[in-house]
Amino acid sequence: MFDIERWQEIFETLRKNKLQTFLTGLSVASGIFILVILLGFSSGIQNGVKSQFERDATNKISIWAGRTTKGYKGLNPGRRIQLKNQDFNKLSNDYADFLEYESANYMIWRALVNYGKESNNYRVWGSLPDYQFIENSDIGEGRFINESDLNNSSKVAVIGNKIKQDLFKGEDPIGKHVSIYGINFKVIGVYYDPGGEDEESQIYIPLTTAQKSFNGADRINNMSYTVKMPQNFDKGVELSQNITLAIEDQLKQMHTVAPNDIGAIRVNNNLEEAQKIFSLVDVIKLIFWFVGIGTIIAGVVGVGNIMLIIVKERTKEIGIRKALGAVPLSIVGMILQEAIFVTMFSGMFGLILGLGLLEVIGPLVKNDFIKYPQVDFNTALTTVFILVIAGAFAGFFPAYRAAKIKPIVALRDE
């Protein structure tokens, strides 16, 4: 029940201790402000890390081949390992139950591409239809390559949005032809990629077409897979790690590579890397919480101190109240209410100031690893809950002391 006399009493008490109340409120507000800013930037770091992994599927496994660094079974080091279609087909069949998407790729690193009077060098990928999902590419216009394109070795191309801007200058590219090293390809689609302009500066053509048109024969440069993810993330990481190790061992056996040769066959596991990075982000967030809570505790100690001063100054008054029949619970409630009010008011000021600052500076932060620093509703609600608990904790000991005051002793107090 709202008691206006109680609130008038609280404000009168705080008015008598203006400086202490201001400094205590400032420490609490500063603690909440610092906590909000730290949590906002930890969220920004998390968003930045996630955006880095959005460039490709998080559960992606990439396989590359290089040169051997060790001799093995009579073979000298320095051999070039060449991946071929049969390697891809073998792995795809052996691990079919665990794979979601798969693609073998043949690349032309800096191909000269022309359209009309415009020309530039771009990376060209001969790939399979699944590669759209492995790369997290969205088709904005037209379509991606399909099985029919592969079977017919069709001279079709899907270009990135950046290439559309560079070569077509606002013209609709669908149905037009671009020249790749003098060979005409019909543009059937335009894709967008969360990785930005670098990822959108590439061209996808059917793998069979790339191998036939650019002297690829049955060679491929790399293989890409995504793992079927179970509901549990940790189990998904474990499954992905096991498949990664099994694929690496199998390829080394197929190409007579020493088991401890790390240069000849390289298998990169995005999910494993994601787990490491996300774990690091969680540690950073925990540290930020620790620093923020520590700052709040300093403010809470200040609130406790001022409440002790207030209790001491009001010893005689409290004694009179108890002599007139006030029960200890009402005394405790009075002190707790004052402590919670000071903490909540100061803390909410710091919370609003922190949220406002994040809203202003958040859009201005331009960094690949810090994006959109902000505090979500649940975190703000948790902060408010912390404030209530902190206020109650700050007032508990002064309230307990006030409840223990004996009327006869208090009345003698000068």
Automatic annotation (TrEMBL):
Organism, as annotated: Yeosuana aromativorans
Name this protein carries in UniProt: ABC transporter permease
Annotated localization: Cell membrane
Superkingdom to which the source organism belongs: Bacteria
InterPro entries the record matches: ABC3_permease_C (IPR003838), MacB_PCD (IPR025857), Macrolide_Exporter_MacB (IPR050250)
Signal peptide (UniProt feature, chain positions): none
Keyword Transmembrane helix in record: yes
Pfam families in UniProt: FtsX, MacB_PCD
Domain ABC3 transporter permease C-terminal positions: 290-407
Membrane topology: Multi-pass membrane protein
Family: Belongs to the ABC-4 integral membrane protein family.
